[in-house]
UniProtKB/TrEMBL annotation:
SUPFAM superfamilies: Cupredoxins. Residues 1-26 form the signal peptide. GO terms for molecular function: copper ion binding; oxidoreductase activity. It holds the Pfam family Cu-oxidase_3. It comes from Gossypium armourianum. The keyword Signal applies. It comes from the Eukaryota. PANTHER family: MULTI-COPPER OXIDASE (PTHR11709), MULTI-COPPER OXIDASE TYPE I FAMILY PROTEIN-RELATED (PTHR11709:SF267). CDD domains: CuRO_1_AAO_like_1, CuRO_2_AAO_like_1, CuRO_3_AAO_like_1. Belongs to the multicopper oxidase family. This is L-ascorbate oxidase homolog.
Length: 545
């Protein structure tokens, strides 16, 4: 690996960090990536826009890994503003410093680089990366992540003939800086202009397959706000994996993919030789946006024909029932040889219940969003660094309640404290008329229940305590609740956020500080030697060589 543009000190620090990792984990391979982040012209909906490219690509390149691989990703920021990448669904075990959100990691300054040192520790599955600062996500900079099982770990389906990344999402023709400025002025965003599949508008993306073979499609909704329904004309999809969990292999004609979520399906090319529509369309919107790609049989000379297959539109119960049908395959191995069902989450005593209610309101005449009445505002220093260096006045643990308070909305740098190795129940309650989508960094959790109305303790009678799916992003339907169980086994400062990106930007997020009083690398890795330092941490040193 050549770290061009780095200082000698930075290069030595990275080499020393890698040396320590190599000694501690000599059996785990390394994969090296050099990513150059630039602006470039893109035309996803037929008009020129300034996009964020990685190595000249929009979307960015796939991040390919195998369980436990060490990933060394050197990111050069050639934009005119600070930049960070985050890794949606990768758990950063014991290592929230590398999570790539502003609460944990200093931004990469313009013209500088930073080397992320990640490990796909005890993970498999389908995820994605994205730019986490400002409103960069509306300009691109995202790409797929695939973590394959180690060769000696059985996978509950035969190797597919091919493996496709399918990034779907809503899109604006408006420049991302103009969208951000609109939010900064306290306004809501308009309805998006279209839907993209792998960075292309209608009929732009192309997937070539061979008749009679089976392919894996890794579908991620990398958009800004809308749930999307995904389907393939004339073909059924067998669901096999959701955000790192092998699922019961159920056949679906279409799948609701809520913003921030990822799914893997197997599709067998069992039709006559021709081309077929791949379709993504918005759910639960007054105006339905639809886009298409092409599934091309390699022996086909017939173009796509017939009407675009219709999908569900505003049917909440249809989506709710589909969500409840997605369950963990208890006998399949996950990242380790033992079956996924060997961890009996339903038999563990809950140590704490956290109830989170989102809201929308005006603060000082500007649109804001909140969790339990607190609308998050970033501090001048990443919270994880302030915690490590014991810098006072940056944040206060307990600045957000673990229950709704009924207070008027107010601004604060909200951090909730939690104990390492606790086992918590979190209830997301949605009093609004939109579908919400929630993500928790650093963790996967069991989605044990969801239903309409208000949650009460009696709602636990409906919980799935046997084979609930484990994932990192869950939906909450309008005027409904979703309950999850989560084992707090990952020390760090972790972002809890809506995936509705304008709401996230305007305050619907907070940080969960999972704390261990034992200062041991068994619980949490020390601060990386090459960590960027900013805000009130600037001028301090990381750790001695």
């Amino acid at each position: 690996m050549v770290l061009k543009g780095s200082s000698l000190r930075q290069r030595l620090a990275v080499v020393l960090v890698l040396s320590v990792f190599a000694l501690a984990q000599a059996e785990d391979p390394y994969r090296f990536f050099n990513w150059n982040v630039t602006y470039g012209d893109i035309y996803p909906l037929g008009v020129r826009q300034q996009g964020i490219l990685i190595n000249g690509q929009f979307p960015g390149p796939d991040l390919y890994s195998v369980t436990n691989d060490n990933l060394i990703i050197n990111v050069y920021n050639n934009l005119d503003e600070p930049f960070l990448l985050s890794w949606n669904g990768m758990q950063q075990r014991r290592n929230s410093y590398e999570d790539g959100v502003y609460g944990t990691t200093c931004p990469i300054p313009p013209g500088k680089n930073f080397t992320y040192i990640l490990q796909a520790k005890d993970q498999i599955g389908t995820f994605y990366y994205f730019p986490s600062l400002a409103f960069h996500k509306a300009a691109g900079g995202f790409g797929g992540i695939r973590i394959l099982s180690r060769p000696r770990i059985p996978v509950p389906f035969p190797d597919p003939a091919g493996d496709f990344t399918v990034l779907i999402g809503d899109w604006f023709k408006t420049d991302h800086k103009k969208l951000q400025a609109k939010l900064d002025r306290g306004h809501k965003l308009p309805f998006p202009d279209g839907i993209l599949i792998n960075g292309h508008g209608p009929n732009g993306a192309f997937f070539t397959v061979e008749q009679g073979k089976t392919y894996r499609f890794r579908i991620s909704n990398v958009g800004l706000q809308n749930s999307l329904n995904f389907r393939i004309q004339g073909h059924k999809m067998k669901l096999v994996e959701v955000e790192g969990t092998h699922t019961v292999q159920t056949m679906y004609e279409s799948l609701d993919v809520h913003v921030g979520q990822s799914y893997s399906v197997l599709v067998t090319m069992d039709q006559s030789a021709q081309d077929f529509y791949i379709v993504a369309s918005t759910r639960f919107t007054d105006k339905i946006l639809t886009t298409t790609a092409t599934l091309h049989y390699s022996n086909s000379n017939k173009a796509v024909a017939g009407p675009i297959p219709s999908g569900p539109t505003d049917q909440i119960n249809w989506s709710l029932n589909q969500a409840r049908s997605i369950r963990t395959n208890l006998t399949a191995s996950g990242p380790r040889p033992n079956p996924q069902g060997s961890y009996h989450y339903g038999l563990i005593n809950i140590t704490r219940t956290i109830k989170l209610v989102s809201s929308a309101d005006q603060v000082k005449g500007k649109q804001r969003y909140a969790v339990n009445s607190v609308s998050f505002i970033p501090a001048d220093t990443p919270l994880k660094l302030a915690d490590y260096f014991k810098i006072g006045g940056v944040f206060r643990v307990g600045s957000i309640s673990d229950k709704p308070t009924g207070q008027n909305m107010y601004l604060d740098t909200s951090v909730m404290g939690a104990d390492f190795r606790a086992f918590v129940e979190i209830v997301f309650e949605n009093h609004e008329s939109i579908v919400q989508s929630w993500h928790i960094d650093g963790y996967a959790f069991w989605v044990v229940g969801m239903d309409g109305g208000l949650w009460t303790p009696d709602s636990r009678k409906e919980y799935n305590l046997r084979d609930a799916v484990s994932r990192s992003t869950t939906q909450v339907y309008p005027r409904s609740w979703t309950a999850i169980y989560m084992a707090l086994d990952n020390v760090g400062m972790w972002n809890v956020r809506t995936e509705f990106w304008a709401r996230q930007y305007l305050g619907q997020q907070f940080y969960l500080r999972v704390y261990s009083p034992v200062n041991s690398p068994r619980d949490e890795y020390p601060i990386p030697k090459n960590a960027l330092l900013c805000g009130r941490a600037q001028g301090k040193s990381t750790r001695p060589l």
